[in-house]
Specification:
Order of helices and strands of chain A: HHHHHHEEHHHHEEHHH
Low-confidence stretches of chain A: 1-7
Largest interface: A-B, 81 and 101 residues
Strand content of chain B: 15-25%
Strand order of the largest sheet of chain B: 4-3-2-1-5
CATH topology of the largest domain in chain A: Nitrile Hydratase, Chain A
CATH class of the largest domain in chain A: Alpha Beta
Helix content of chain B: 25-40%
Helix content of chain A: 40-55%
Radius of gyration of chain B: 21 Å
Distance between the termini of chain B: 24 Å
Order of helices and strands of chain B: HHHHHHEEHEHEE
Oligomer: heterodimer
Number of domains of chain A: 2
Shape of chain B: globular
Number of helices of chain B: 8
Structural class of chain A: mainly alpha
Shape of chain A: globular
Number of strands of chain A: 4
Mean pLDDT of chain B: 97
Strand content of chain A: 5-15%
CATH architecture of the largest domain in chain A: Alpha-Beta Complex
Strand order of the largest sheet of chain A: 1-4
Number of helices of chain A: 13
CATH superfamily of the largest domain in chain A: Nitrile hydratase alpha /Thiocyanate hydrolase gamma
């Protein structure tokens, strides 16, 4: 796969890309790391593990009050009920938005993120500005994402400093009362579960 | 370690929302380096403290200039060198060979692929919180003043600040010592809530709350 890559992109490899390929080649040549193991990890996070998983968790919590309670009290178990579990989800905690509470997650020291439910983090989540600013001026950061919160709403910023990984349970838009779980999941974007966006009902109507 | 990775509250980095920021990565080598770092750990190919303390020890200018997975590449390589799995100069040698057009065949090992996927699908929760934890919900605590040269999970911006314990999350050995291979007994990890005023002083923004998970060793009674 690495080698095919060059044929599709004739531009010269950057120094870091070349170094990455050299390290992979060195380890493969010695039989220490296998090409199919690398491919399997890449495929896992490109196909099976991503925000579509978290969206299903949120939709279930919206549709089933008892599931919601389990999710908020014992998140690992509730998430595992839907078949999702794994690395960086060892100690899941789900934090629920309310009319007067908005949650947002970050990792200022590293870029810790709940992989089993959200996949690998977007570049902005790992960026210096997000890690620096969201704990110190959360409303300004949320405004950049187009999210303007009323002064009545308490913003709670969760800095993932230990092994707990957070997922935001957003508020269900009131217009979605008779929607199926599948329709609900379709409006739950990754950013809604990080806390830099809120679900909007009309997006699903278009989809 | 009080390095540039400890970014909470730093100024000058510019906007968060930038073109391309939505993507987890931009180039094919990036997820492959992610996979290599995972395999170095699982297959026992590296030595020394885990990838995170190694990345924190990068030259600060390099850390800031490097992309996320470039840092991972750095830590994978350093850990491989420390164990002696690869020798100094070998990566450079392989770069020269690739540059000269040599093609390196892949290596297949289906069992390794199964092992890493099974590992990435497993969870290893913290221990349950001890009944005799020093602090309980509602209790005021103060984060100790400290200046550790090694790895820590206590960011600078909370040191010296008062907060309120929300709950005990569980128990785990102090990473400040555990990452260096020391056997440390599990200690309580608390969810602690801080008022923005107590962390940053007055702000133009309406006050907010910042919550961190902090080991018992970082805290004292307020």
């Amino acid at each position: 796969m690495t080698h095919d890559h060059d044929h599709h992109h004739p531009r010269p490899a950057s120094a870091v890309e070349l170094r990455a390929r050299a390290l992979e080649a060195l380890l493969a040549e010695r039989g220490l790391v296998s090409t199919d193991a690398i491919d399997a990890v890449v495929e896992l996070y490109e196909q099976d593990v991503g925000p579509q998983n978290g969206a299903k968790v949120v939709a279930r919590a919206w549709a089933d009050e008892r599931y919601r309670e389990r999710l908020l009290t014992a998140a690992n178990e509730a998430i595992a009920e839907l078949g999702f579990a794994g690395a960086e989800g060892d100690n899941m905690v789900v934090v629920a938005n309310a009319p007067a509470v908005h949650n947002v997650i970050v990792c200022t020291l590293c870029s810790c993120y709940p992989w089993p439910v959200l996949g690998l983090p977007p570049s902005w989540y790992k960026s210096s500005p997000y890690r620096a600013r969201v704990v110190a001026e959360p409303r300004a950061v949320l405004r950049e994402f187009g999210l303007e919160l009323s002064d009545e709403v308490e913003v709670r910023v969760w800095d993932s400093s230990a092994e707990v990984r957070y997922l935001v349970l957003p508020l269900r838009p009131p217009e979605t009362e008779d929607w199926s779980e599948e329709e609900l999941a379709a409006i739950v974007t990754r950013d809604c579960m990080i806390g830099t966006a809120v679900p909007i009902a009309r997006e699903a109507a278009i989809a | 370690m009080d390095g540039v990775h400890d970014m909470g509250g730093m100024h000058g980095f510019g906007p968060v929302v930038e073109p391309g920021g939505e993507l987890a990565y931009h180039e094919r080598w990036e997820p492959r380096v992610f996979a290599i770092q995972m395999l170095v750990g699982l297959e026992g190919l590296g030595a020394g403290p885990g990838g995170r303390p190694v990345r924190e020890g990068m030259d600060p200018a390099h850390y800031l200039a490097a992309s996320y997975y470039e840092r991972w590449l750095y830590s994978a390589e350093q850990r491989l060198l420390r164990k002696g799995t690869i020798a100094p100069g070998e990566v450079e040698g392989a770069i020269e060979r690739l540059d000269a057009g040599e093609s390196v065949p892949g290596h297949q090992d289906a069992a390794m692929a199964e092992r890493i996927v099974a590992h990435l699908r497993s969870v290893y929760p913290m221990d349950t919180p001890p009944a005799d934890a020093r602090f309980g919900p509602g209790q005021r605590v103060r984060v100790k003043r400290m200046h550790p040269a090694g790895h820590t999970r206590c960011p600078r911006y909370v040191r010296g600040a008062d907060g309120v314990v929300e709950c005990v999350r569980g128990a785990e050995g102090l990473p400040d010592r555990a990452v260096y291979g020391e056997q440390v007994a599990p200690e309580p990890v608390y969810s602690v809530a801080f008022r923005s005023l107590d962390l940053w002083g007055p702000s133009e923004e309406t006050s907010w709350t910042v919550l961190l998970d902090l080991w018992d060793s970082y805290l004292e009674p307020a």
